[in-house]
UniProtKB/TrEMBL annotation:
Short name of any one Pfam family annotated for the protein: Acetyltransf_3
Taxonomic source organism: Thalassococcus halodurans
Keyword Kinase: no
Domain N-acetyltransferase: 14-171
Transmembrane segments: none
Highest taxon, organism lineage: Bacteria
GO molecular function: acyltransferase activity, transferring groups other than amino-acyl groups
Protein's name in the database: Protein N-acetyltransferase, RimJ/RimL family
Keywords for this protein: Transferase
Length: 176
């Protein structure tokens, strides 16, 4: 059962869709990982992960967009999350991504981000997107660069502290 009004987006290898309760265990496992979680925020306990999961569902109802589960078509397993995020205190809508450990290094974040960005421009009518990336997150900076985003500035993120804002190409470039 879908928990959000998210669309169902597809690529050759992925389904990008609403959160389901079956997705929570994978997300909580990611957020408890002291190596991977800090690039996305903090290391969370299971109950803190639950609050973030529920918060994202509310985010969809407030903004009409949010994070979605990225599902591997071949296995049917959740392999990460990707979506548009813009909570209180954020400078503007951000496209963000996470790939779970078993799926790293397969181009999944790139494939999901390309599809979600296209949806944001075509369906939501957004005119610009950013990615907010910690200065220590080299992998996300490399992915942002691969996506055509450019480092714009460092700023103080209300949730993450010092953060870098990367500007993605606009709809005129992406949808051409």
């Amino acid at each position: 059962m879908s928990l959000t009004p998210a669309p169902r987006l597809e690529t050759d290898r992925l389904i990008i869709r609403s959160f389901h309760m079956d997705d929570f265990d994978s997300f909580a496992e990611f957020h408890a990982d002291p190596v991977r979680a800090p690039g996305f925020g903090e290391v969370y306990t299971r109950d803190q992960s639950w609050r973030w999961f529920a918060c994202n569902i509310g985010h969809w109802h407030i903004h009409g967009y949010g994070y979605m589960t990225v599902e591997d078509k071949e296995t049917g397993r959740p392999c990460g999350i990707c979506g548009i995020w813009n909570p209180e205190g954020w400078p503007e809508p951000e496209i963000g991504w996470v790939v779970y450990e078993a799926f790293e290094g397969k181009g999944i974040a790139y494939e999901a981000a390309v599809r979600v960005r296209r949806w944001a421009y075509e369906e939501l009518g957004l005119k610009t997107l950013t990615s907010n990336i910690l200065s220590s997150n080299d992998r996300s900076q490399a992915l942002a660069t691969r996506l055509g985003a450019k480092y714009e500035r460092t700023y103080h993120n209300v949730h993450m502290g010092e953060d870098q804002l990367w500007r993605h190409p606009g709809p005129d470039e992406v949808l051409a």
